[in-house]
Amino acid sequence: MPLSTAAARPLSRRAATLIGFTAILLWSTLALATSSTGAVPPFLLTALTFAIGGSVGLVTALVRGVGLGVLRQPWPVWLHGVGGLFGYHFFYFSALKLAPPAEAGLIAYLWPLLIVVFSAFLPGEKLRPAHIVGALMGLAGTVVLLGARAGGLGFAPEFVPGYLAAALCAVIWTLYSVGSRYFANVPTEVVAGFCLATAVLSAVCHALFEPSIWPAGAGEWLAVVALGIGPVGIAFYTWDIGMKRGDIRLLGVMSYAAPVLSTLLLVAAGFAALSWSLAAACALIVGGAAVATLLARR
After folding, report:
1. What is the pLDDT of residues 182-231, one digit of tens each?
2. pLDDT at res. 174
3. Euclidean distance between CA atoms 279 and 209, whole angstroms
4. Which residues contact 191 (CB under 8 A, 6 or more apart)?
5. What Rg value do the Cα atoms of the chain yield, rounded?
6. Separation CA 195–CA 59 (nearest Å)
7. For the chain, what is the total number of helices (H) and then of strands (E)?
8. What does the CA dihedral 21, 23, 25, 28 come to, rounded to 10 degrees?
């Protein structure tokens, strides 16, 4: 549920980091939940889930006594929030259309490494070599995992527009995440407004670029609602708290756990099989997190 960064009892750095990590756990369920939504096209699914996530945030804020007046924020706040959420998804979906999914996904998933690097420019943060090493180990694990899933990675010149779109979405998400620290005084409840605005813009893109294929049956609608409440709803609120108040470098490294956890969930559900590449990816990503956590402290 949305938590205000202006709460009466301030969060410790460790608590905020743990809250931010719940976003990574929720994002690891995206693949499994999305596979249950049938043939709903990407922008329509984004519009539906962000509308649900934003509505849940507004209702929770009202229940907690936070009025709608919290949405009255300067335009840079809205540009940062809506530009980050909608911009990332727009270019991510564009990349998947213009380039093979494995290569596009790998380039897009450079954002954890970029978050670690860009955090060095934040006031009060100190980037250590262990953070870079940990992030690179996580990236290596993602390369192993996605490369094995796709039967190998091959970057071809004809897919350059897709690669550029994927790189742009990685940069946008990095700027949104790291930039949240500069808006630390903006209550997390405002993320609900970002979600609703993203839903509207996604609905426009759906009307322009996609056929209308709605969820078929109660099962697919239930999956859409689950996506809207969890990976698209709660996750963005908790990520906002983690970026504003937590250890941003550690969260960047730990973000590489999402694709591995996602694959493990697919294995548990019978949609994927155990493999040596999965084990190697787990070892690299867990090792990278350990390096970033333990060696950086030393």
Report:
1. 999 999 999 999 999 999 999 999 999 999 999 999 999 999 999 999 99
2. 94
3. 39
4. 2, 57, 81, 236, 237, 240
5. 19
6. 13
7. 15, 0
8. -140
